[in-house]
Protein 1
Amino acid sequence: MLADYHVHTKLCRHAEGEVADYVRTAAAAGLDELGFADHSPWPVGYDAQSRMTEAEFPQYRAWVRDMQDCGGPVQIRYGIEADWVPGRMDEVFRHIDAEPFDYVLGSIHYTDELPFDDPSNAGRWQAQDQVDQVWRRYAELMLEMVRDGRIDILAHFDLPKKFGWRPSREAPFLESVDEIFRAAGERGLALEINTSGLRKPVSEIYPSLVVLKRACERGVGLTLGSDAHAPGDVAADFPAALDLARAAGFRELRTYRRRQFTGHRI
Ligand code: ZN
Ligand code: FE
Ligand code: FE
Ligand code: ZN
């Protein structure tokens, strides 16, 4: 069983290609399932330049349904990549709970006002004290998101490494990681191995082996995602992702249907 649970559509304004082309690549890669998880339009007005509008959302739903209805070899799943926006999650989940999503990815792309993973803002946090601050705040927000417990899968868990910038001390970060995964394990959450880091300056899969091992020890589940923003990136580097999963101790991958998961041996 192999599934890519993190691909985008051009509705997000920074992806390209037709949904049918994403499905075609998935079929060629031999995937059993492909899950669309485009950037959520909620909360309304948040980070509007890199996501569909609320008015475009029915188009997203229709595209995914069309792909589900074509009956090809790849099962299509209906997901969403939700941003954790402190103080506004009731609005987000009011919308999400009204949709028959198969799963919800939880993402953090902003530490408060700083879009830290946006290359055009990278100059704003290059100094080591700022880097440390981003990692610290990121871990706080991640813990908040996990304790809230309403998402299913933690996306690109160590995203602040995108430009290769690391915390000056690893130990405090790993302590937060353990606290996050303890809470995630208790709540039945999963995290993804996201191969898009290999296509970024850091040139590494998200998250690293040391982080994955800790997740596995705490009983956190696992999915795979390419984070494709172009059809050619669907299932990119999945052999490496599977090797990493096994090296970390994982023996199962999860699939989701209407927010319920099933484990599959890898
Ligand atoms: Zn994106
Ligand atoms: Fe993301
Ligand atoms: Fe994404
Ligand atoms: Zn992503």
Protein 2
Amino acid sequence: MSKQTIAIVEDEADITELVSYNLVREGFEVISAENGEQGLALITENLPVLVILDLMLPGIDGLEICRRMKDNPKTQNIPIVMMTAKNEESDIILGLGVGADDYVAKPFSPKELIARVKAVLRRAAKLDDSSDTSSDNTITIGDITIHPDFYQVFVKDKQIQLTLSEFKILQTLITKPNRVFSREQLLR
Ligand code: CA
């Protein structure tokens, strides 16, 4: 599996270096930019799995980057963790309002940031999974495909019409292919 890329947008080189060092140690690939314009370009070009965004940046600030990412269909689902200086609570609330997923207040420990990053990534992965399974309970055996959510049955890509009871019997049989059912069991 290729490494997951995380983008850091931060104008303080020390912080970028510290965060980057810790992310690389955790197995991530890190790309970084030191101002808003560069950051936005970097994110749009590389589509990282997550963005760590400083709130106070020269040029376009963190909030504006957040807004523009959410406006762009290519970047709108990329999770964002914001870094804020102390006493910027109103900005934090604003940040979460424009779509940041979490934040850490400076000074933070790298350990804390990594924990937040991993939690946000886990949440994002879970959202992906659940959208997959809800749209797909499909069961396929041989030429037969059934979609339990829609009571549809296909044989070799051709839909066939069944009554609800017939459908339920087929579903029962297909989900337990090696079991023998009596007539009474099927009726139930
Ligand atoms: Ca800053």
